[in-house]
């Protein structure tokens, strides 16, 4: 997953319940997305998931792709391509 240059957006601050509410989905869905490797929230020393603003954006992209009719396997492929495109754009020409 590509991270933004803004470290504040990458900092895990939201618990799983808050992240689910922000995205408009259920906690179990977030766990399923994590199990599929679609999102990787940071974990506290005690193992609690902490979602960042970047994670919430990514979850919103997942939700939009689900609404467009893709399944989780298709979403994984699309997001991998989007992440690679972002990496290439940041690398610039040459």
Automatic annotation (TrEMBL):
Superkingdom as given in the UniProt entry: Bacteria
Pfam families (UniProt xref): MerR_1 (PF13411)
Cite the InterPro entries for this sequence. DNA-bd_dom_put_sf, MerR-type_HTH_dom, MerR_fam
SUPFAM superfamilies from the UniProt entry: Putative DNA-binding domain
Key words, A-Z = DNA-binding
Q: Which residues belong to any copy of the HTH merR-type domain? A: 13-81
Question: A GO molecular function for this record?
Answer: DNA binding
Identification of the protein by name? Transcriptional regulator, MerR family
């Amino acid at each position: 997953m590509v991270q933004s240059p803004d470290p504040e957006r990458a900092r895990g601050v939201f618990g799983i319940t808050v992240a689910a509410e922000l995205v408009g989905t259920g906690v179990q869905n977030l766990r399923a997305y994590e199990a599929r490797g679609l999102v990787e929230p940071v974990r506290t020393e005690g193992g609690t998931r902490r979602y960042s603003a970047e994670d919430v954006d990514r979850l919103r992209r997942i939700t939009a792709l689900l609404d467009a009719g893709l399944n989780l396997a298709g979403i994984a492929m699309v997001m991998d391509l989007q992440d690679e495109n972002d990496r290439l754009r940041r690398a610039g020409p040459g």
